[in-house]
Amino acid sequence: MNQTISLLTTRRTHRSFLDKPISPQDRALIQEATLRAPTAGNMMFYSVIEVTDQEKKEHLAKLCDDQPMIAKAPMVWLFLSDAQKWVNYFHESGSVAKGEAMGIKWRQPGAGDLLLAMSDALIAAQSAVVAAEALGIGSCYIGDIIENCEEIRDLFNLSHYTAVATLVIFGYPKNPKPLDVPALRCPVESIFMENSYQEPHLEELQKAFGQQEERLREQQRLPFENSGTISDYFYFRKHTSDFMEEMNRSGKKIIDLWLATEG
Ligand SMILES: Cc1cc2nc3c(=O)[nH]c(=O)nc-3n(C[C@H](O)[C@H](O)[C@H](O)COP(=O)(O)O)c2cc1C
User: Fold this and answer.
1) What residue owns the CA closest to ligand 1's atom 19?
2) N or C of the chain: less Cβ packing under 10 Å?
3) Mutate-to-test residue for ligand 1 from 64, 142, 237, highest number of ligand atoms within 8 A of CB
4) pLDDT of the chain, 263 residues: tens digit per residue
5) 14 CB under 6 A from ligand 1?
6) Domains of the chain
7) How far is CA 101 from CA 91, 97, 163, 234, 244, in A?
8) Computed from CA positions of residues 151, 157, 161, 165, in that sequence, does the dihedral angle turn out positive or negative?
9) In terms of C-beta distances under 8 Å and separation of at least 24 residues, what long-range contacts does 30-35 make, across chains too?
10) Ligand 1 atom closest to Cα of 69?
């Protein structure tokens, strides 16, 4: 099989790493691959903070719904949407002044800029993940970075037009070929649609998630003493959880802060 396709179809999330730093060569290769990710207008609306300070890592692990593996990971990269760099460049290089002389008013970055910068940062993160995988380095995204945005902003001294996009932890996996079975995915036809959105309802959804439900049942992990459904599993475990409540509060704040007029 084509090596890239094989890499992409066998990649798995790793959460347990050897106590061994990422070699400078591997780190540089991952950085180079990250920079080659597509980026809107080639403007690189993102930045990456590598968290090397152990105290910061530990604080970060607590803020991300208390996931100690973050503090133990050899390499921790915080991907930021970053329009601040262009706000500064436009002002400090005189473009804004030139525009004003021509009657073109300064425009603050808006929701579109935020979404574009988020796209840039997430696409770059995935290039880093794939490059790492190719080098035998495991990784795990940390979605809980969206929580506690006020403390995260303070911890990393974030500027107005930066916003956390994602956090990725990397390391040489303790077990490069985990013994547990890989996570299942929905079948292709439940994800790919043609020409218009086809809203799925119960029957299609049961089909789409049926295999995953079956596995959870085999593993005795479904709620209501294993008599529940995969819908119950995600509804009670995730959708109505305290951490999702915090993520939604903090997520709204991230957007509000970006959209707030600079005072
Ligand atoms: C946006 C996003 C956020 C995630 N957040 C976490 C997280 O906070 N903690 C964690 O252990 N795994 C996290 N993961 C990893 C997923 O749980 C993992 O990708 C999923 O279970 C499928 O497993 P696989 O990547 O091995 O196929 C996240 C993945 C993504 C894409």
Assistant:
1) 13
2) C
3) 142
4) 899 999 999 999 999 999 999 999 999 999 999 999 999 999 999 999 999 999 999 999 999 999 999 999 999 999 999 999 999 999 999 999 999 999 999 999 999 999 999 999 999 999 999 999 999 999 999 999 999 999 999 999 999 999 999 999 999 999 887 778 899 999 999 999 999 999 999 999 999 999 999 999 999 999 999 999 999 999 999 999 999 999 999 999 999 999 998 75
5) no
6) 3-183 (3.40.109.10)
7) 13, 6, 31, 56, 48
8) negative
9) 30/128, 30/131, 30/132, 30/135, 30/137, 30/170, 33/127, 33/128, 33/130, 33/131, 34/124, 34/125, 34/127, 34/128, 34/131, 35/124
10) 11
With tokens 């050897």, the residue in question is 18
Q: Which two tokens stand for residue 180?
A: 């547990």
